Amino acid sequence: MDPINMLYISIEGNTRSFMERFMAYANQQHAIDNTLPEIKAREISEQTDFTDEAEPFFVSVPTYLDGGNGIDSGVKELMTNVLGEYIHYHNNAPQCIGVIGSGNRNFNEQYCLTAKRYAQQFNAPFIADFELRGTSRDIEDIYNIVVKQSQQQK
């Protein structure tokens, strides 16, 4: 079974923390049942060399906005742009099969706005969200969604 690929960006460390715990959980599930897919995660940053993605991937992106409320007074993305540029690179966008968002629910309508915009921009479903560093329940739920969504792509 092909591994499931995940790309993410982390600014404050929340998404990285979530992905580290997500990977530990995924590895544990694979060890218990080797018919479950392996999951590979890769952090995209300003230092990342852009490459052509040959396999489908999921994206996890936090929301950071600078200016506007993201709804009716415009939006200016802040700090996560390199991930969007990476997905835009060559023919990577069609390989994106799902978007996971994170943020802070205190920001109401702006919660997970970047992920929702990525989903629309890259024609991929917005499949899940978590707040801040996520909970153990979020990890289990998102793992199950990712595995199911990946199997549907085959």
Automatic annotation (TrEMBL):
One GO MF term: FMN binding
Membrane-spanning parts: none
Pfam family name, one: Flavodoxin_NdrI
Gene3D superfamilies: 3.40.50.360
SUPFAM superfamilies: Flavoproteins (SSF52218)
PANTHER family hit by this protein: PROTEIN NRDI
Official protein name in the record: Ribonucleotide reduction protein NrdI
